[in-house]
C-alpha cells in the first residue's frame, strides 16, 4: 500500500462489507470471513458502490445506499419465462436463486436466474435476484494497492474465476 492513497481506478481494494436489502435481510457479507479484494474501475462490483468508494482512504468505514439503477437494475417481470422442468437436465439441482448460462436464439450467452419453481414449471429471469432492490452496504476499507500490469490488462485480479477465459 502507498501512504495517503485513496481509492481510484487501477487500484486493488481490499475491504469487508455487509449487504442488506430494504427489508433488513442480510444478503451477503464478508465480516467474520475473508475480505473482498477487487480491481477498482473495471466493473468488478456494482457501479454505485464503486462511486461511493472512489476517493476513500484505508481505514474508512462507510454506509452506502445504491439504488437499482446503479446496482443490479430494475426488475422487469415481463422478461420472466416459464420453462417445463423436463427442458433441464434430469440431474440438475434446481433451486430458486441459482444462476445458469443459456443462449439467445442467435447463440449469444445470457445469464438466467431461477425465480420460482411451481410443480413442473420453472420460472427463469434475465433479471438478477437483487434487481429492483436498493442495496444497503456497510464497508470497512482494509487495504489499497496499485494493480499490476497483468491485472490491469485482464481487468480483474489474478486468481479470479474469470482467469479461465
Task: Break the fold down into its secondary structure elements and pairings.
Elements: E1 11-20, E2 26-29, E3 36-39, H1 47-53, E4 61-66, E5 81-84, E6 99-103, E7 109-118, E8 121-125, E9 135-146, H2 149-154
Antiparallel strand pairs: 1-2, 1-3, 1-9, 4-9, 5-8, 6-7, 7-8
Describe the structure.
The chain has two helices and nine strands, in the order E-E-E-H-E-E-E-E-E-E-H. The protein is mainly beta. The chain has two domains: 11-72 and 130-155, Chitinase A, domain 3 (Roll), CATH 3.10.50; 77-125, Thrombin, subunit H (Beta Barrel). Strands 1, 2, 3, 4 and 9 form a five-stranded antiparallel beta sheet that branches. A hairpin with a 5-residue loop joins strand 1 and strand 2.
